[in-house]
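2 proteins. here.
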Amino acid sequence: MQVTWNNALSRGDRTVKALAAAGLLLGVWALFLLAPENIPYLSCAFRDLTGHSCPTCGLTRSLHAASHGELVVSLRYHLMGPLVLTGILLASVLWSVEAATGKRIRLATNAKPARDVIAMFLIVWIVYWGIRLISEFVH
């Protein structure tokens, strides 16, 4: 894999990248500071309607635990929490660098393997949700 710097970003694109990075970092900071139990109006509409977990149930608590370095606790809440937090942090760094340099960063990879990784991630997430649903019906 090779990192390439190409295509200068317009002023507007740089602003969007900076705001997106700041928004992600602000969200992570809020997750770090606020326990999910203390966030008003945080509820899962899917669970409220069906009584069962949605694909992201537990993700906020998982991200909170992961942001405190509590990996085992994070994984108990949601298997994908640490991966999602890592992705959020990487995206915020990437967008911050792009906003600061004014250049778009591209990872020179074969597009097919990248799609395969994303597809596998989504498949694992759906299978994980299915297992959680089955365990809810069994208990």
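next one coming up
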Amino acid sequence: MVIFSEEDKIKSYEKLKIWQDSIIFVKNIYKFTEKFPKEEMFGIVSQIRRASISVPSNIAEGWARRHTKEYMNLLSISLGSLSEVHTLLVISKEIGYISDKDISEIFDEINKLKKMIYASINSLSKKIK
């Protein structure tokens, strides 16, 4: 099923607020992970960065496919990537790389993006019923 009623007006995924906010999230993750120990650059830092990059990438891919079910699936993958980032940050805190204070803003961003993605999925699911 082809999608897009309100999205029809948007000619590029780059105009989607959810995509724009997820790009900012990736930039923030990169800045944040610069504080990690250098020996983690190819370990946990690399994994956190890859998972964060997956969020806007899957939003863009889903939007570009222009089919509701595929878009919803890729939005769901973005949710999984956000949960992966969250988990990796919790692990980083537990092993002493970062503090609760350090990650509170990132967790707020994760929660904001999750809400946006859930809202998009819910909106799209109404179109296929």
